[in-house]
Design brief:
- The chain is an alpha+beta fold and 140 residues long.
- It has three domains: 44 residues, no CATH class; 44 residues; 34 residues.
- 60% of the residues lie in helices and 16% in strands.
- The strands form two sheets. The protein has a four-stranded antiparallel sheet. A two-stranded antiparallel sheet has the order 2-5.
- A hairpin with a 4-residue loop joins β3 and β4.
- The protein starts with a strand and ends with a helix.
Length: 140
């Protein structure tokens, strides 16, 4: 069998390439094979092409519903994936808190009156601890 490269002049007929998978038809004698760059084509004899046509057509008729079903499932899965991602993002935005407890103490507005009443007791306790530390250092 004669091999033809892409853009080679070839006689009338059907040409097939396995790597990459490609089929080209040359409609006139001496016309170039307008195929995939780097592909090597082989001529398919006309009687073989005529004999294979019903087989290929039958395969197409049998496989087409499965192709459509797979495409529909893929489309729905992608749609659900985008929907799930959007739902997770919006839920995450609702679940995140915008309250910063440390910032409430920094500006002085976050402390309520109850905490202000406990502040002198905490200051007295802190002073007692500092006195104890100083006393232990002197002894130590």
């Amino acid at each position: 069998m004669t091999r033809y490269e892409n853009q080679d002049a070839a006689p009338y007929g059907l040409y097939f390439s396995t790597r990459p998978l490609d089929v080209r038809f040359v409609g006139a004698e001496g016309e170039r094979i307008d195929g995939v760059p780097g592909a090597t084509y082989r001529h398919v004899p006309t009687p073989l092409a005529v004999a294979l046509a019903p087989v290929l057509g039958g395969l197409f008729v049998i496989a087409f519903p499965f192709v459509i079903f797979a495409a529909a499932i893929t489309g729905v899965a992608r749609l659900l994936g985008v929907g799930a991602r959007e739902a997770a993002t919006s839920t995450a935005r609702v679940a995140t808190t915008r309250y910063a407890a440390s910032a409430a103490w920094i500006d002085g507005k976050g402390a309520g009156e109850a905490e202000d009443a406990e502040a002198p007791a905490a200051d007295a306790e802190l002073a007692d601890l500092e006195a104890e530390v100083a006393e232990r250092r002197e002894d130590g």
